[in-house]
Amino acid sequence: MEARWRSSAKPVQAPKTTKTVSFEEVSGEASSSEALPLSLHLTNAVFFSLFFSVVYFLLSRWREKIRTSTPLHLVNLSEIVAIFAFIASFVYLLGFFGIDFVHSLILRPSTDLWNSEDEEENEALLRKEDARKIPCDQALDCSVTSAPIISAQKVVDEKPVKLTTEEDEEIIKAIVAGTTPSYSLESKLGDCKRAASIRREALGRITGKSLSGLPLDGFDYESILGQCCEMPIGYVQIPVGIAGPLLLNGKEYSVPMATTEGCLVASTNRGCKAIHLSGGASSFLLKDGMTRAPVVRFGTAKRAVDLKFYLEDPENFETLAVVFNRSSRFARLQGIKCVIAGKNLYLRFTCSTGDAMGMNMVSKGVQNVLDFLQTDFPDMDVIGISGNLCSDKKPAAVNWIEGRGKSVVCEAIINGDVVRKVLKTSVESLVELNMLKNLTGSAMAGALGGFNAHASNIVSAVYIATGQDPAQNIESSHCITMMEAVNEGNDLHISVTMPSIEVGTVGGGTQLASQSACLNLLGVKGASQESPGANSRRLATIVAGAALAGELSLMSALAAGQLVKSHMKYNRSSKDVSKTS
Ligand code: ADP
After folding, report:
1. How far is the C-alpha of 483 from the C-alpha of 559, rounded, in Å?
2. pLDDT at 568
3. Same domain assignment for residues 427 and 489
């Protein structure tokens, strides 16, 4: 009953849909968009009318008694009934509207704490936030907005597909029977939304599982065709939070982070504040080159050595570069590094790829060179275009040492006062913790590029928001965080060095509506008009800047001994997940 009340008290505007016969309905489960039954409106109207009628009746009776000097406590049957009706309707209306009203008063979002000069006031506000059980202990800005949530995904101007036609029913049956392959729906129907809808319906019937909760409407399925995802049946929603402004190289950035991890955005936000109050961070690009390393095999190690020397001879580089660069006007070969294992040779090609992350581009260039080499080395057996020396989406020392994509170093000097007041710790504690945790602890753990507190948290969240390949988080999160006391021990110098940030602002998921909006927010959407590659390079520096903010805040929370406390307190949902359908 309470669940129905609450969903009715905050009515969700359901998308206007034509009546569709979905698997949820077939299996008897109501979808969430149907959560406002008409009977509730009627009940509300009845109780409203009842309440005002009895109030009017009782007041007029009261006036009458005063006029005739009748004692007020003498009540007849109709007055008793009216009093009961008054109490019942009052309790109903209080329960229905009153609880939400009181909640809205107590849970009203705080003002932006960044603007508050008064540290005491900040603390008080934070304590107030604590009472509300908002998972933001590490952050200073935990404002909760009560504004309606609007899907960031481009809302597609389309009518929901009706699954009631005989033709659709035939197709669904054919998929269920296995006579029509599900993957062929897009090409057969020429309508990606309808294909997804039919596939989803068929899947529901085949598995007998409900897909209620996985949305279908509100997504542009044409935009992912042949590019981002095959056989779609819907899309997963991930909230996007905003950290910042991050003051980096003299510019302010609002950093979008897609995550479901409580505290993460808030913590990064606090790091941004500390950086901002200390005059900002500086980020420098060291290298920009995507890699691909095919593996080729020869009959003898000697032949493999022949090819290695040929490829590493500077005199041959010009020719190889011309062949390689034919793959794209943006691909520019930078070098080839050869590694031998017996009679097998691994050729690690590195090239710049403009604003694209560049995996496709570099692969095409490599294929061109392999085809070219086949003339002079006909005994060369190409085993695989990727021989794992690249090394893509796997932890590998080669990326940590040589770099892959963009190599960036980012630094900031955090004022000692800011460390104390905003980060609630001391320069000394941070330097000591960094040495024992990020450097020594990681060394003892045999870490590979993991000399940091949680760079991958920030990298993943920014990657998902901006349409990067989240699997590349593995090497993109390689990071060494360094901290040192400077200015006679008063201030903190912090830096992150990240040798393999793989990002692009064109291609892949970057062109999808939501992701593209996040890139736009950062001012790096699409191809750079000034110089090819400028947007993706800037994005890499922002990723490093955000990682710096994240490192600063989490390390401070650890140094101040807040982390476990805050996670125990705020990150433990009291919801009984076993009851979640
Ligand atoms: P990736 O190589 O990262 O997988 P894609 O090959 O999917 O990326 O996308 C890159 C495409 O974008 C290429 O076709 C390329 O010609 C085009 N493109 C347009 N402008 C640029 C630019 N400034 N930098 C890189 N590629 C660009």
Report:
1. 13
2. 64
3. yes
The catalytic residue among 261, 306, 428, 432 is: 261
Ligand 1 centroid distance, CA of 356 (Å):
5
Higher pLDDT, 66 or 430: 430
Same-domain status, 436 and 554: yes
| Cβ density class 171-191: b for 16+ within 10 Å, e for less | bbeebbeeebebeebbeebeb
- The CATH number of whichever domain residue 372 belongs to comes to 3.30.70.420
Residues 473, 372 share a domain = no
Say what the pLDDT of residue 13 is: 39
Mean pLDDT of 544-566: 90
pLDDT at 363 over 50: yes
What is the Cα–Cα distance from 446 to 159, expressed in whole angstroms?
A: 55
Element (H, E) at 68: helix 38-68
The structural domain count of the chain equals 4
Question: What is the domain-level CATH number for residue 459?
Answer: 3.90.770.10
- 449-472 burial, b for 16+ CB within 10 Å, e for fewer? bbbbbbbbbbbbbbbbbbbbbbeb
At 209 the pLDDT is: 97
Nearest CA to ligand 1 atom 7: 507
Give residue 519 CA to ligand 1 midpoint distance, Å: 16
Whether residue 436 sits in one domain with residue 554? yes
Question: Of 51, 77, 49, 79, nearest to 64 (Cα)?
Answer: 79
Instruction: Please report the sign of the dihedral spanned by the C-alpha atoms of residue 40, residue 43, residue 44, residue 45.
Output: positive
Instruction: Locate 20 and state its tokens.
Output: 């569709």
251 and 302 in a single domain? The answer is no
Kindly report, residue by residue over 87-116, the tens digit of the pLDDT.
Answer: 888 888 887 776 555 555 544 433 333 443
Q: Is 10 assigned a catalytic role? A: no
Given a cut of 50, whether residue 125 has pLDDT beyond it is no
Stretch 159-173: mean pLDDT: 79
Q: Are residues 245 and 380 in the same domain?
A: no
Residue 29 domain-assigned?
no
3-state secondary structure of 45: helix
Q: Which residue CA neighbors atom 6 of ligand 1 most closely?
A: 360
| Cα gap 438→329, rounded to integer Å | 41
Q: Are residues 280 and 299 in the same domain?
A: no
Instruction: Supply the residue whose CA is at minimum distance from atom 19 of ligand 1.
Output: 527
Residue 103 lies in a domain: no
Same domain, residue pair 556 and 509: yes
Domain that holds residue 88: 45-94
pTM here is 0.74
Looking at 196, 224, 252, the residue that finishes a domain is 224
The pLDDT mean for the chain works out to 84
In this structure, the residues whose C-beta lies within 6 A of any atom of ligand 1 are 328, 330, 353-361, 504, 506-508, 527-528, 532
